[in-house]
């Protein structure tokens, strides 16, 4: 665990330190597109944040390759190299799109090529557990098609949800944290060596998002752009494919008399990551709704609009920060709920807790105008918008505040009420003289 934490911290630190220079480079390079109709921000903001995130990815892999307990991942598996190859291609495509713009079909083709490069280097789905059937081995063509489909779906789901400051990075970080808990349990809890690459990918992905978030929270100083959103989507998909399609459920030693029963017994463990859709359920739901909405209107599925979930949260009255926190809440509820269910599917408390938290989330959605306030003792630890406003003291009118300075000195002997009239006559006599 310590080496994973070290890898995570190095990745986060490199990403954080690179983001500042990358922001200056993006401004000099002119990677600041004009405000579009669907944009939420009101000032041109530099993109190309994916450059810093890719630097963090390379640094994390480099450090892990020299750690005693993690270097065997690079020796026994070609998956880290496959990830780096696919990430490099998708990152380069994103940089070109952030600077000059790339057609949607060209981007789709580039995503498929990046996924194909990972498949050629061994990062592919070999078999899947099917409830009631058993372990189903896939042909090379079936595995390739399924792998490419999962990569493309995940990349576009993350790309579609990248519409508010800090939204995509935060949601992917939550998904990576849940993914790491699951993969780490599979490796050390069940002794599955094949789960080691996915655990490493999740730790690096958390570091990439945590290092970029301080620069991307509202109001954002830089956007990750397609170079960042497609990159973190590919890393998340690669980890899910690694652990889902290459870990044999027979190795879990949960036999119940037959292979079919064994697979059925491991379904609660495998369902959360059978497809990488549960850990990013909210982005995927947004993706599917966008495709249906645009197709129904006769538009291209890749046509941009303001109908995403985060746009609708803003329309019903939620603030920018509140909309982001609500999306965080639902992502964490679904991701960690699925992981908890995989650990103990027989526990009723898990289901009850998910139901209660879902009710809380619905209440928050129905109260867009409510602004939470922190207690007095905690105000110094929260942003200013959550602090109680002090009662303003009556302000003195500017005309009255400077009245004393503007008054003429009263000659000696003029006091009391009679001094007011005499003072005016004295001032008049001065003007006349």
What is the chain-wise order of helices and strands? HHHHHEEHHHHHHHHHHHH
Radius of gyration: 29 Å
Query: DSSP helix count?
Result: 17
How widely separated are the two ends?
92 Å
- Overall mean pLDDT: 77
Poorly predicted regions are 253-257, 396-433
Give the quaternary arrangement of the chains: single chain
- The tally of strands reads 2
> What is the spatial order of strands in the main beta sheet?
1-2
| SS strand fraction | under 5%
Helix content: 55-70%
Structural class: mainly alpha
Shape: globular
Largest sheet: 2 strands, antiparallel
Secondary-structure map:
Layout lengths: L1 H28 L20 H15 L6 H6 L2 H21 L4 H17 L6 E4 L3 E4 L2 H22 L5 H24 L5 H21 L8 H22 L12 H16 L6 H16 L12 H7 L4 H24 L4 H18 L32 H4 L1 H4 L11 H15 L1
Antiparallel strand pairs: 1-2
Write a compact overview of the structure shown.
This protein has 433 residues and is an all-alpha fold. The chain is built from 17 helices and two strands. It has helices at residues 2-29, 50-64, 71-76, 79-99, 104-120, 140-161, 167-190, 196-216, 225-246, 259-274, 281-296, 309-315, 320-343, 348-365, 398-401, 403-406, 418-432; strands spanning 127-130, 134-137.
Descriptive report:
- The protein is mainly alpha-helical and 433 residues long.
- It contains 17 helices and 2 strands.
- The protein has helices spanning 2-29, 50-64, 71-76, 79-99, 104-120, 140-161, 167-190, 196-216, 225-246, 259-274, 281-296, 309-315, 320-343, 348-365, 398-401, 403-406, 418-432; strands spanning 127-130, 134-137.
- It has a two-stranded antiparallel ribbon with strand order 1-2.
- A hairpin with a 3-residue loop joins strand 1 (127-130) and strand 2.
- Helix 5 crosses helix 6 and helix 7 runs antiparallel to helix 8 (196-216).
- Residues 253-257 and 396-433 have low confidence and may be disordered.
């Amino acid at each position: 665990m310590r080496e994973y934490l070290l890898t995570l911290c190095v990745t986060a630190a490199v990403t954080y330190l690179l983001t500042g220079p990358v922001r200056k480079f993006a401004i000099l390079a002119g990677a600041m597109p004009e405000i579009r109709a669907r944009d939420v921000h009101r000032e041109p903001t530099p993109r190309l944040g994916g450059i810093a995130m890719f630097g963090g990815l390379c640094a994390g892999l480099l450090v892990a390759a020299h750690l005693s307990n993690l270097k065997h991942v690079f020796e026994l598996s070609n998956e880290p190299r496959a990830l780096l190859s696919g990430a490099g291609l998708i990152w380069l495509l994103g940089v070109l799109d952030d600077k000059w713009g790339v057609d949607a079909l060209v981007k789709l083709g580039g995503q498929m090529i990046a996924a194909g490069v990972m498949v050629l280097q061994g990062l592919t789905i070999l078999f899947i557990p099917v409830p009631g059937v058993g372990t189903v081995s896939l042909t090379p063509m079936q595995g390739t098609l399924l792998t490419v489909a999962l990569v493309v779906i995940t990349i576009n789901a993350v790309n579609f949800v990248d519409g508010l400051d800090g939204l995509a990075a935060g949601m992917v970080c939550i998904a990576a944290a849940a993914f790491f808990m699951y993969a780490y349990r599979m490796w050390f809890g069940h002794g599955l060596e094949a789960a080691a690459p996915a655990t490493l990918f999740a730790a690096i992905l958390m570091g990439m998002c945590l290092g970029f978030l301080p620069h991307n929270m509202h109001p954002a100083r830089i956007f990750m752009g397609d170079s960042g959103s497609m990159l973190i989507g590919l890393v998340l998909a690669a980890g899910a494919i690694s652990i889902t399609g290459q870990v044999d459920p027979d190795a879990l030693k949960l036999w119940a008399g037959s292979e079919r029963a064994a697979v059925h017994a491991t379904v609660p463990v495998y369902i959360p990551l059978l497809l990488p859709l549960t850990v990013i359920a909210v982005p995927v739901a947004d993706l599917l709704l966008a495709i249906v909405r645009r197709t129904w209107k006769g538009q291209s599925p890749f046509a941009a609009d303001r109908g995403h979930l985060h746009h609708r949260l803003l329309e019903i009255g939620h603030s920018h920060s509140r909309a982001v926190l609500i999306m965080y809440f639902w992502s964490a509820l679904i991701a960690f709920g699925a992981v908890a269910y995989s650990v103990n599917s027989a526990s009723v408390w898990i289901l009850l807790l998910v139901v209660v938290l879902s009710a809380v989330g619905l209440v928050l959605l129905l109260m867009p105008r409510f602004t939470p306030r922190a207690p007095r003792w905690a105000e110094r630890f929260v942003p200013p918008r959550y602090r109680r406003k002090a009662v303003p003291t009556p302000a003195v009118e500017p005309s009255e505040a400077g009245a004393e300075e503007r008054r003429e000195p009263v000659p000696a002997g003029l006091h009391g009420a009679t001094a007011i009239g005499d003072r005016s006559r004295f001032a008049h006599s001065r003007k006349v003289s």
